[in-house]
Sequence to fold (466 residues):
Amino acid sequence: MMSRILVVDNEKSMREMLSIALKNEGYEVETARNGEMAVEMVEGSDYDVVITDINMPRSNGIDVLDAVNRVRPETPVIMMTGYASAETAVETMKKGAYDYITKPFNMKDFMLVIRNASEKKQLAEENTYLKFALKDKYQFGNIIGQNAGMKKVFEYIEKVSNSNATVLIGGESGTGKELVAKALHYNSSRKNYPFISINCGALPENLLESELFGHEKGAFTSADSTKIGLMEAAHKGTFFLDEVYEAPHSTQVKLLRVLQERELTRVGGTKPIKVDLRILAATNRDLAEGVKQKVFREDLYYRLKVISIEIPPLRKRKEDIPLLVQHFINKYNEQHDKEGKIQGIEPDALKCMENYEWPGNIRELENTIERAVVLEPGGLIRVSSLPEEIFKAPSPADNLIPAIEGEGPVDLEQTLDNIEKSMLLGALSKTDGMINKAAKLLNLSFRSMRYRVKKHNINAKTEGNE
Fold:
């Protein structure tokens, strides 16, 4: 896209000369004959670069610079003057001018300054766009879910985003732990600084420490130069330790020091380096059990678990499947530019997906929908577009009802009890364990629901007794 440039000079010949030269280079050019006119134009339009003479009658170039700084601070301003003085140059640069040029000037050098200034504006706009895009992408409102467990996740994100507290995110593989971590970062005061992550189980011990903390030249055989570690690079931002359970014991000791002292030492170094970081960690393992088994440090465990967020697996939030399916249909309709867009999913196909247990959680569901969007020739995802393991998955009732085979007896009472307990647990999971609300879902009276909960020895609660 062609850059828009405003040229401000009280000399008509200078305005015309610069306008012709800049248009020949492909720029869109507007001109102003004095500072007052330029200020009005700046306040009403957006320019990629402003070029202004300093010495003009009444309103001068400094006034134009001040106006740009007030309404369009990201726009580079190039100051021109035929009366160069060190004091004026220093003043304009202190006020934020991009460059200071003395007339007469070499046109080739002048065009280089213009090109660099224009590129700076474009980079600033791209950077701003990317920051807004990232913030929008990782708004906690864009994490899909209406399940009671997911609502708790949203509440925690909203409450703790702007704190510096360490957060431990738990959940099975594929539940979206990194998405929650990014939501915490991009909704915090650190959002304009780096979000850097590392998978603690993906690297051998020596390489993991070099990546985390950096190394000094000569620290080991291949260390032919000093390297800044990822934690140091994330200064003022957020550092995410994914699969922290897998961190070797020696690395755990060094991570503890970062959390306690807010400093680290590069591999092979002796000088402590201060870092300002927010630490987030995630695991699909039971860290408390790791502490009992002596594979995870107890002091590090408590340092990480200042705030704990647990993401429920997809099999425990199946009411969210229709929302997630439509979300991923929309995403992959856009990504795979097919002639016929997928509008939705047939009821039979959705039922198959709701019956499936989803061991791979959201990640598996997303891959399934992408596959279906690519393969489906019609406007709705059908059962035939789903993987075999999904459309052949038994329904929950099939798992509870034993087949009557041979001559062996089937315990009907026990089977009915199992079905009843399963339905009670399902209703309670959708109502955050509230008996009153679960009773309504099952069309039972409160007394009948309370009796059945007690009969099956299920933990539940009533309103006012939380």
Notes: The radius of gyration is 32 Å. The chain has four domains: 4-132, 144-312, 315-393, 405-455.
